[in-house]
Amino acid sequence: MKWLILLAGIVFEVLGTVMMKYAEGFTKLIPSILVFVFYAISLGALVLVLEKMEVGNAYAIWASAGTALIAIIGIIFFKESVSPAKIISISLIILGIIGLETFK
Questions:
Q1: Cα gap 2→61, rounded to integer Å
Q2: CA 47-50-51 angle, 5° bins
Q3: DSSP E strands: which ranges in 13-95?
Q4: Phi first, then psi: what are they for 54, rounded to 5°?
Q5: Which residues of 32-53 are buried (b: 16+ CB within 10 A; e: fewer)?
Q6: How much is the pTM?
């Protein structure tokens, strides 16, 4: 259950970040509101997860998974630049997430 809640927190954190892009400096009302709604849900999920997981691991997974997903979304949906260095860096983030849980 803790993993589902953490996954939900990550998804809502990513949605909040995507809404930041669409909010255009908080000039668009609906995306601006959704930034706060999605981040509130995300932080609420993280708080619930911290009852069952170590804070260092839970936060590191939450933050780094969100970072990796946003980088991938930027490349795919927002046509951001992609380079071998960027792909390697995203891969290292993902390996770090796996390592945190594998080598406790």
A1: 12
A2: 105
A3: none
A4: -65, 140
A5: bebbeebbebbeebbebbeeeb
A6: 0.90
- The number of distinct structural domains making up the chain is 1
6 vs 58: CA distance, rounded Å: 8
User: How far is the C-alpha of 56 from the C-alpha of 88, rounded, in Å?
Assistant: 24
Distance CA 96, CA 55 (A): 16
Q: What is the three-class DSSP state of 25? A: coil
- Tokens linked to 6: 């953490």
Q: Give the residue numbers spanning the domain of 11.
A: 2-102
In one-letter notation, the amino acid at residue 38 is F
Per residue in 15-36, pLDDT tens? 999 999 999 999 999 999 999 9
What the block records as the tokens of 104 is 């406790």
For the chain, counts of helices (H) and of strands (E): 4, 0
